[in-house]
């Protein structure tokens, strides 16, 4: 024990001596280089510290040189790219004079001449070329097009070059666009399966004319059309017409289309309109099993990405119309947190209209769709597309609010799923997946689901009036609509789109659906509108009175003709004894409506005062011929 103590004490003494010694010590990295006095700088430890810092700087510069050398060795045109990047920094500035930019672009294109197709795939050179193509002359653009032409297909698959290709197409002449689309022949299906290449196909499809679009689509129909051009004309715009003209085998066409569309659907490349069109054509000839499998694959969040196009929303309508209750539930749940955006979309809003018209599970629709619509109610009521779902509930399928094409698309169906009796094609569907036997036969309420064709060939089983009442009145949406109309009365009346919602709410909706439960609130709305109309006419204001404004005067006129209760309130609050003020201009249409009303009480109310104005020559009225 004493020997061990002695050894420990000796070790501590040597350690302490080494710490107190003036011998310089090596350090891994100084925390900071501080200014020191001359005396301190002369110390050997300080010299060593400076040497370490200098060595670090040298090693950094050396590593940069090595990295540059490796890049030069790996990338053939690295030096050229650096030169182009410097020129690009100058030419892309917004405030640069056009003459200077043209000079820089010409210099840049001269440096790249003969090498454009080789460097177009670089993230640096691609941006330089995009700027050049945007601002260069047509002759210079033609030279770039000629150099890129042999490599269009390979460049279309490149992550960076794809932006250059789309920019070239945006600035291409009709002849160049036709030449580019012609060069895609035989590669449309392969490029559509590619995440990057599909962007080029979609861009060319949107820029092409009807004949060019048909040529691109036809490649997806049959191997024969993929190999040979000009077999199909614009007369055969539908797939069924193509099959009839060329006497193609329908099972063969289905197999070929499935081999192209299946990988596309599985990869989730579903944003493009050409794919939506191809799926519509596929469903038009598909047997019941194949069509049902497509609907099963598309039901869910993937459908939300498709309904922004004309054919995409038709697919959405078909999936809602022919889907099982389980698939409809997936579609509605997939719309969660996206309902507001869908409602404001020109085509997406029609899918919501279809859901309101068909889906029987009103509780699910209320919880997801209607609750989200209520959050942005005021904004949607003034929006051209956003008002459509509300108008469908207030006045279903009204030609005033939905055009012939919209109503036709909403009643669109898949032929094979519409038929009750059918025979399966002699091959199994390549889209078929594993069957979920646990709940395949149950709907969302736990009830047994019948076959697709027999259960809902044209929509849901529930009575349409009952479904509408549950969605509009029982959900509480109607009450919030009335409150919003009371709060935004003047804005809605003067709005080109909001006036129609206010009119339907004020009249109680089609068949008076709002009157039994919301009669008092509707009376309050009538009084609110009448109070706004009773305000004095502004003398020197840019804002027009609602009786003189174009949209509001016509809406009030319609309310007088179609809603006698409102006509009585408006007369008592705003017009009695004041008709002489409003017998000219747009407001005269409001006064005339009292004499044109089909309700004798309304006519009798205003007849005496208006007749006096007619006799004085202040107001003219000609009864309409029946």
Blueprint of the fold:
Elements: H1 2-20, H2 38-41, H3 44-74, H4 78-91, H5 98-112, H6 116-119, H7 123-135, H8 138-148, H9 152-156, H10 161-170, H11 174-183, H12 188-192, H13 197-207, H14 210-218, H15 223-227, H16 239-246, H17 250-267, H18 273-285, H19 288-298, H20 301-304, H21 310-322, H22 325-334, H23 339-343, H24 348-358, H25 362-375, H26 377-381, H27 388-394, H28 404-410, H29 415-418, H30 452-455, H31 464-474, H32 477-487, H33 489-494, H34 498-506, H35 515-533, H36 550-562, H37 564-575, H38 587-596, H39 600-616
Pumilio repeats: 147-182
Domain PUM-HD: 83-439
Region (Disordered): 1-75, 434-466
Question: Could you name the key traits of this structure?
Answer:
626 residues, Leucine-rich Repeat Variant, 4 domains, extended, translation regulation, PUM-HD domain-containing protein
Shape: extended
Structurally, the number of domains stands at 4
Q: So what's the CATH class of the largest domain?
A: Mainly Alpha
Strand content: under 5%
Tally of DSSP β-strands: 0
> What do we call the CATH topology of the largest domain?
Leucine-rich Repeat Variant
Helix content: 55-70%
Quick check: average pLDDT? 84
Instruction: Give the end-to-end Cα distance, rounded to a whole number of Å.
Output: 128 Å
Low-confidence stretches: 21-36, 420-457
CATH superfamily of the largest domain: Leucine-rich Repeat Variant
Instruction: Give me the number of helical elements.
Output: 39
CATH hierarchy: architecture of the largest domain: Alpha Horseshoe
Biased composition (Low complexity): 18-35
Pfam family, one: PUF_NOP9
Biased composition (Basic and acidic residues): 37-69, 453-463
Biased composition (Acidic residues): 436-452
């Amino acid at each position: 024990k004493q020997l061990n103590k002695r050894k420990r004490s000796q070790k501590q003494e040597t350690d302490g001596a080494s710490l107190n010694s003036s011998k310089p010590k090596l350090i891994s990295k100084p925390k900071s280089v501080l200014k020191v006095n001359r005396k301190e700088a002369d110390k050997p430890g300080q010299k060593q510290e400076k040497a370490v810092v200098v060595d670090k700087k040298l090693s950094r510069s050396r590593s940069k040189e090595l990295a540059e050398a490796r890049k030069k060795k790996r990338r053939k045109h690295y030096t050229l790219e650096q030169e182009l990047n410097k020129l690009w920094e100058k030419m892309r500035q917004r405030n640069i004079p056009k003459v200077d930019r043209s000079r820089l672009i010409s210099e840049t294109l001269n440096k790249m001449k003969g090498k454009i197709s080789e460097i177009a795939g670089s993230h640096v050179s691609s941006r330089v070329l995009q700027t050049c193509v945007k601002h260069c002359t047509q002759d210079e653009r033609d030279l770039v097009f000629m150099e890129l032409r042999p490599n269009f297909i390979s460049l279309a698959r490149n992550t960076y070059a794809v932006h250059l290709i789309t920019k070239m197409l945006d600035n291409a002449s009709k002849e160049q666009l036709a030449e580019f689309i012609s060069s895609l022949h035989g590669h449309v299906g392969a490029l559509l399966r590619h995440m990057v290449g599909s962007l080029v196909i979609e861009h060319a499809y949107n820029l092409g004319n009807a004949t060019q679009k048909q040529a691109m689509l036809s490649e997806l129909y049959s191997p024969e059309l993929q190999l040979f051009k000009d077999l199909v004309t614009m007369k055969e715009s539908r797939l069924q017409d193509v099959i009839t003209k060329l006497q193609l085998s329908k099972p063969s066409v289905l197999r070929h289309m499935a081999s192209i569309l299946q990988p596309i659907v599985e990869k989730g490349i579903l944003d493009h309109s050409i794919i939506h069109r191809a799926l519509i054509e596929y469903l038009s000839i598909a047997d019941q099993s194949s069509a049902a499998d497509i609907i099963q694959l598309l039901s869910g969040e993937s459908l939300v990405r498709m309904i922004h196009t004309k054919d995409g929303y038709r697919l959405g309508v078909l999936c809602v119309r022919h889907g099982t209750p389980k698939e409809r539930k997936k579609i509605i749940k997939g719309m969660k947190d996206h309902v507001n955006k869908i409602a404001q979309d020109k085509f997406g809003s029609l899918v919501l209209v279809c859901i309101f018209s068909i889906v029987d599970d009103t509780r699910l629709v209320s919880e997801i769709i209607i609750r989200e619509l209520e959050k942005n109610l005021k904004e949607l009521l003034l929006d051209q597309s956003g008002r459509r779902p509300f108008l469908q509930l207030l006045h279903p399928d009204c030609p005033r609010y939905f055009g012939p094409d919209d109503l036709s698309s909403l009643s669109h169906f898949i032929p094979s799923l519409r038929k009750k009796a059918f025979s399966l094609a002699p091959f199994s569907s390549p889209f078929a997946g594993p069957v979920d036997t646990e709940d395949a036969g149950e709907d969302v309420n736990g009830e047994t689901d019948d076959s697709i064709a027999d259960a809902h060939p044209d929509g849901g089983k529930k009575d349409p009036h009952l479904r509408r009442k549950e969605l509009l009145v029982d959900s509480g949406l109607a009450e919030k609509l009335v409150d919003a109309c009371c709060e935004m009365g003047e804005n809605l009346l003067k709005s080109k789109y909001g006036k129609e919602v206010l009119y339907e709410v004020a009249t109680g909706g089609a068949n008076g659906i709002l009157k039994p439960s919301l009669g008092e609130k509707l009376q309050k709305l009538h009084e609110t509108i009448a109070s706004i109309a009773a305000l004095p006419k502004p003398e020197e204001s840019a804002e027009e009175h609602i009786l003189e404004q174009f949209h509001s005067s016509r809406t009030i006129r319609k309310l007088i003709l179609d809603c006698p209760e409102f006509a009585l309130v408006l007369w008592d609050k705003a017009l009695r004894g004041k008709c002489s003020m409003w017998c000219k201009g747009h407001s005269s249409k409001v006064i005339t409506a009292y004499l044109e009303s089909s309700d004798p009480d309304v006519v009798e109310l205003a007849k005496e005062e208006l007749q006096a104005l007619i006799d004085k020559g202040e107001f003219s009225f000609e009864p309409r011929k029946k």
